[in-house]
């Protein structure tokens, strides 16, 4: 036998042993396979560096396996619980997200459901994207360690067989002050997703005075601390989107803030590369003296369009009026009530129910309003909010976790004053905002207007109690009569303060008397019931009358 044959056989035997070893350890990890090569040249698998590779969506950060999500109730630590889910722990379900929204927003149940589903699907899509990338890296590591390579045709075939989740951009439309912006803010806070709001009214076409459309990506980068992975998984809210509707065809002027901006936004929504300047000293900067730049892929950024779309209800109403229109006689024409063309239509009666008119919105209606067809086609989910009723506006004042009254009561307590509103006063405030059409957004301005005098007078004045009753609210904007001032009481006038509340709101007076007397008696003593508290107040009145 020739020496060359002997060497060839020895090489084949060694290769066979290696193949047997690799096949017997096929279920072992990449690290185990590497340790089998102690007598051969070590090949270090390519690993992702945790310090440099952080492609994790925001909702998958800051998680420890010991933390759990409270689904039955949301305590004060609900914000941190929502931010701390990751890895194999499930995301909060759309029901849990809606429950979280209910703590901050009143009404709009249908809009909350649709919006929760849209945000949930966005997070699922980001997680699927990360899982797919991790599997691809693991496959590359295994192929590199074992010397296996796939042909170009096999790689293309695998990519074609994959089912990819597409993003669903959202349009949230409804009257002013119906809570559109609040829904996006609360869910972005709950999921710890980078979030920014841009006003479309200030945007112009490139080359003209105003903000470029890419400014919204720059703001998102600032909110993400210039972390590329967080930016590419963020949410951009385009408020006042309806103001970008293109001009009528007979207008010959260049539409630099309408159709031109829509065409620029179309590129961002479809997905493009945007170059962002990173100031020195930020986490995304390379530490140079001059500004660095990063490239952002907008294909995975979720865009939420918002607007009141004033006038769209007329387009929808005319469309619905043409469907199965019956024959009209002269009697019908002269007997029909003349409608005000400027009056806004909020709902349509159907089957004995009042349905918000924006619930009938379609993509064709958006195109008729002035949205270009290409951009309207990129909007997958259309969610509408309805006008809040008087009772819902009254709940907005008191029920949310960060309600307006809770904030003002905390503010007045900082200098030792107790602020109180009666139920009739809250109703008058809600009725005023409803009739003026300013919605929940106008509640803050009305409360500010009422409390400007108490806020000026009460600090360091010895005023213990401040009462806003119905008469104070009714005369706040009455120019014909003198304005009624809020009622002030010292710490020695607790009974008089409770009596003034009882005139308009007995239930509130009884509840507040228990709280105040409990504070006076101390926590260790027995708390008097409603009858005992009322008797004490009556006894105090008799003593004051006899004196």
Automatic annotation (TrEMBL):
Biased composition (Polar residues): 1-27, 61-80
Stretch list, region Disordered: 1-80, 527-547
Biased segments, Basic residues type: 536-547
GO biological process, one term: proteolysis involved in protein catabolic process
Keywords carried by this UniProt record: ATP-binding, Nucleotide-binding
Entry-linked NCBIfam families: PRK05342.1 (NF003745)
Name by which UniProt lists this protein: Similar to Saccharomyces cerevisiae YBR227C MCX1 Mitochondrial matrix protein
Protein source organism: Geotrichum candidum (Oospora lactis)
